[in-house]
Amino acid sequence: MPTKFLTKEQWDKIVPPFHHVTVKNNRFGTVHKEIIKKWLEAHCGAGFIYWDGEETYIFGSNADMIAFKIWIMSDPFADDGIID
């Protein structure tokens, strides 16, 4: 079963436990956020994810949250736009 992204209405009905990460990066544009969403869809398990569209990512699975933190902290966009 693929990861399910919750809508705001679905998120409002969720009760703990859940796990969250705040990602603050002013250089992330629309394309970066789309890549992040695609990564989450491809790498997270069968739990839910709620993304507020800005900085907050909430996971139904602690393992999914940890995997995301490891990936996002590795600075996956560090070399964007550089062609040698």
Outline the secondary-structure elements:
Layout: E1 4-5, H1 8-11, E2 19-22, H2 30-43, E3 48-51, E4 56-59, H3 62-73
Parallel strand pairs: 1-3
Antiparallel strand pairs: 2-4, 3-4
Task: Characterise this structure.
Helix content is 36%, strand content 17%. The chain is built from three helices and four strands. It has a four-stranded mixed beta sheet with strand order 1-3-4-2. It is globular and about 40 Å long. The mean pLDDT is 87.
The beta-strand count equals 4
Number of helices: 3
Strand order across the largest sheet? 1-3-4-2
Shape: globular
Order of helices and strands: EHEHEEH
N-to-C CA distance = 41 Å
pLDDT < 50 stretches: none
The SS-based structural class is alpha+beta
| Count of folded domains | 1
Percent helix, as a range, is: 25-40%
Largest sheet composition: 4 strands, mixed
Calculate the mean pLDDT score and round it.
87
Proportion in β-strands: 15-25%
Give me some keywords for this one:
single chain, 84 residues, alpha+beta, four-stranded mixed sheet, 36% helix
